[in-house]
Amino acid sequence: MEVLLELKAKVREAYTTTLVSLIVSLVIGLFGGTFLGKYFAKIRSSYPGLLIILPGMMGLRGNVFGSMASRFSTMLYLGDLEPSLKDKKVLKNVVLGLMLSLIPILMLWTVGVIQGIRKNTFEILLIIISSTIAVSLILGYFTAFITIFTFRRGSDPDSVAAPLVASVGDLLTIPSLIAFILLLEKAKFEFWGTNILLLSVFVGLIHFSRVRKREILGLKELFMTITFLALLSIISGSLLEHYSEVIQASIILSFAYPALLSSFGNYGSVIAAKTSTKLHLGEIERYFSVEPFLDIVALFMTTPIIGILINYLGLLVAKLTLNVQTAPITILALTYPFMALFIMLYSYTISYFLFRKNINPDNVAIPLIANNSDIFGTIYAILIAKAIVGGI
């Protein structure tokens, strides 16, 4: 009876708190997907290398700033961070997040060149550097704000911050790339000026924030993880580039792809963040503890709603953007909940066993889950797209 009452409370929280943030994240992700769908053909023809890098960029934002949100949440609960944006640790973490983002991006571009990026190679490098600096600054402070604001209102940041941070990252990533592409093609002088300005701001922030070497070394574990995962995301990028024609032909998925990936990552990140906090507070004693599985069951009950919304919002965006009328993807609505369930179980398992190995889940589990969710989500999207266009 006590377990049922606890489950009821968790389901209520899932619907009143987490589902709201998931839906907001979904809408935000579809807004970013609108730009991808509208300019998908242009990217394929003029900047195909971006398709190889894109999943890594999207995943990297979620990895770096999703980890920051989880780290802020743990620090707030332990009293190591004042619930204020004026706390010096906020600026330092934002700058560290920016630094952590740039090196893997350069490595992604290098691997992309090795894999065959030949068209507009140097221009793509400038576009991704400028985009990374601009988006990281915005996303860093958004991460701090949403985590602190949620905490001060008495809600659990782990239930809200990760989905919103990941989706805002998706929202900013694709439009920023498109904006720099259009700026390059229509106003090259302004494009170069913007690049110089953003690099100058980056150097100035490093000096102003007084980031110390020991603080950078303190995130060595996270840096090594996200760098490895960024390179691993080449799998997603190569799949996206190789099957881009199939995804574009499915229509809905060319718009919903970012939202689909971010929704899987959101479910995984929420479970990872909740698990990390409970483990640090000593609330999970063994793998088959009741508490974390109640969290998973409660969130699973929200997945049919998200699956249906991806369908119909994708239809709406395709109609408004390309004036294309198509049918809902029934197979997506039916299979989406079970794919999300798999990712949540995977997320909990990874978080639990990393913690038992004395590895902080905030620094490793969330980036790993976000990256793996992108790979699983890309494979899932390709299979759904092939089913729609008759490829399987």
Automatic annotation (TrEMBL):
Family matches, as InterPro entries: SLC41_membr_dom, SLC41_membr_dom_sf, SLC41A1-3
Domain of life: Archaea
Name under which the protein is recorded: Divalent cation transporter, MgtE-like protein
Keywords: Ion transport, Magnesium, Membrane, Transmembrane, Transmembrane helix, Transport
GO cellular component annotations of the record: membrane
UniProt family annotation: Belongs to the SLC41A transporter family.
GO MF, one example: monoatomic cation transmembrane transporter activity
Keyword check for Lipoprotein: no
Domain SLC41A/MgtE integral membrane: 55-179, 258-381
Keyword Ribonucleoprotein attached: no
Subcellular location: Membrane
Membrane-traversing stretches: 14-37, 49-70, 90-112, 124-149, 161-184, 191-210, 222-240, 252-273, 293-317, 329-355, 375-391
Main localization of the protein described in the UniProt heading: membrane
Topology in membrane: Multi-pass membrane protein
